[in-house]
Inverse folding.
């Protein structure tokens, strides 16, 4: 199964929504808090090219933010990407 990685902050409501959606599906995730982990903001910028959170990856594939994750799930593609 591919690893799901989320770059988050403590105050982001979309981060909480992404974590909730993934948890509701029983999907384990690696959360990287860019506020509390030095150097992780630069890592997120390098990987995604974006500054907003959450930034979500499945394996090495950049999904985008929460809206992109929700759309992928709604279209039935989330679980197949995890396989």
């Amino acid at each position: 199964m591919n690893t799901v990685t989320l770059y988050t902050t403590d105050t982001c409501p979309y981060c909480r929504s992404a974590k909730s959606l993934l948890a509701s599906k029983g999907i384990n995730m690696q959360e990287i808090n860019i506020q509390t982990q030095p150097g992780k903001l630069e890592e997120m910028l390098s990987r995604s090219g974006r500054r907003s959170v959450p930034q979500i990856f499945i394996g090495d594939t950049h999904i985008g933010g929460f809206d992109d994750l929700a759309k992928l799930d709604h279209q039935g593609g989330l679980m197949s990407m995890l396989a």
Summary: The chain has four helices and four strands. Strands lie at 4-8, 29-33, 55-58, 61-64.
